[in-house]
């Protein structure tokens, strides 16, 4: 079992997806790279990443797909 990145994007969208995944019973690890981007002087819209246990991907995929459709 390892971690799998399921999202890279803005902090607002990452937080919203994290909430939806947690409501589905999936533990999520959020890695926020905003501070390092500020220090390095770069502005990145992919500053936040979400990771889940790869064994939970089958359960998470429909949640992620619905979320991506809803924000388009």
UniProtKB/TrEMBL annotation:
Residues 7-67 form the DUF2007 domain. Pfam families: DUF2007. Coiled coil: none annotated. It comes from the Bacteria. This is DUF2007 domain-containing protein.
């Amino acid at each position: 079992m390892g971690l799998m990145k399921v999202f890279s994007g803005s902090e607002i969208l990452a937080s919203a997806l994290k909430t939806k995944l947690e409501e589905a019973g999936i533990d999520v690890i959020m890695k926020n790279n905003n501070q390092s981007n500020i220090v390095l002087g770069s502005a990145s819209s992919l500053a936040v990443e979400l990771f889940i246990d790869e064994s939970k991907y089958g359960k998470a995929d429909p949640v992620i797909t619905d979320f991506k459709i809803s924000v388009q």
